[in-house]
């Protein structure tokens, strides 16, 4: 299906000129300071807060924060929670914050917990999937990454003492994926846009190389108490990938340089909430993210007698 995106020439990948045109077309739509940083300020007394970088587009406006449970013990496993890798995916950010506010301390005797609640603050403010350079951070977690969001986070994690055993990366799949972001991706890369569908409900993305089906099932069972699970489409797929069990698909997370593949954690999952569903509220979306994180922690505790 032909689709004309307002930037670029069909069939030709973007140059620096088109990327700059795209950047100039973006607008600030909400406040990282008011909606995120103010909430994080209240957590500085409870956790060790680490500013691990700042985005060069505006270093004062976009500091990058991570929060660590106190009394760090390198003999305990590390549980890593990331949100807002795609800044427009709102419940990823606010689910991570809510986990910090209400649940993280409960698990701190068993884990060293690290939460990076908003990896892409410019993307949060502009409600965007990409960073200012029209780069998708969630395809850019590798050494010498051109995405500052990824490079700063990778450096921070490399300095942690201990083994990362669990990583939960909090995401959303929204209607704008098909309305804006996938058409923009096709235009940027000089390809035709082929329409897809947006699944109605929560699902998980596991790692093709280390799928951990029981782990994924445990999370799905917990989340379905909060919100509905996305069904497979007529072809047995979700977003073009085969459903391997109810509400679960797998990606080659390391080969695709996804956030979920950036560590060697034994237990890894990416959550995907559908905030545009007629059957889900913002509250349910945030609660689903927290349920995914806590159920993941509970499963690992059971497997490792923690």
Automatic annotation (TrEMBL):
An example Gene Ontology biological process: proteolysis
Domain Peptidase M14: from-to ranges: 28-306
A Pfam family: Peptidase_M14
GO MF, any single term: metallocarboxypeptidase activity
InterPro entries given in the database record: Peptidase_M14
UniProt-listed CDD domains: M14_REP34-like (cd06231)
Family: Belongs to the peptidase M14 family.
Protein name: Peptidase
Source organism per UniProt: Ferrimonas aestuarii
Lineage: Bacteria, Pseudomonadati, Pseudomonadota, Gammaproteobacteria, Alteromonadales
């Amino acid at each position: 299906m032909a689709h004309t995106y307002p930037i670029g020439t069909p069939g030709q990948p973007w140059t620096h000129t088109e990327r700059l045109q795209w950047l100039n077309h973006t607008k600030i739509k909400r406040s990282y300071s008011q909606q995120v940083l103010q909430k994080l300020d209240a957590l500085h007394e409870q956790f060790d807060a680490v500013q691990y970088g700042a985005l060069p587009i505006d270093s004062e406006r976009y500091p990058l924060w991570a929060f660590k449970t106190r009394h760090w013990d390198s003999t305990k496993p590390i549980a890593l929670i990331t949100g807002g890798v795609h800044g427009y995916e709102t419940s990823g950010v606010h689910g991570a914050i809510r986990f910090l506010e209400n649940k993280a301390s409960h698990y701190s005797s068993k884990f060293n917990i690290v939460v990076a609640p908003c990896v892409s603050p410019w993307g949060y403010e502009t409600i965007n999937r990409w960073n200012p350079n029209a780069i998708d951070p969630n395809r850019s977690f590798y050494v010498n990454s051109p995405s500052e969001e990824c490079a700063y986070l990778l450096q921070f994690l490399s300095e942690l003492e201990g083994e990362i055993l669990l990583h939960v990366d909090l995401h959303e799949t929204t209607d704008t994926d098909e309305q804006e972001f996938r058409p923009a991706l096709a235009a940027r890369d000089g390809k035709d846009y082929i329409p897809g569908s947006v699944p109605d409900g929560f699902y998980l993305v596991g790692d093709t190389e280390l799928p951990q089906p029981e782990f994924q099932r445990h999370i799905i069972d917990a989340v379905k108490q909060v919100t509905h699970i996305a069904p497979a489409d007529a072809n047995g797929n979700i977003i073009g990938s085969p459903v391997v069990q109810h509400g679960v698909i797998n990606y080659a997370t390391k080969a695709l340089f996804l956030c979920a593949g950036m560590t060697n954690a034994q237990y890894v999952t990416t959550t995907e909430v559908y905030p545009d569903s007629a059957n889900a509220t913002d509250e349910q979306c945030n609660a689903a993210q927290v349920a995914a994180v806590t159920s993941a922690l509970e499963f690992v505790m059971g497997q490792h007698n923690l």
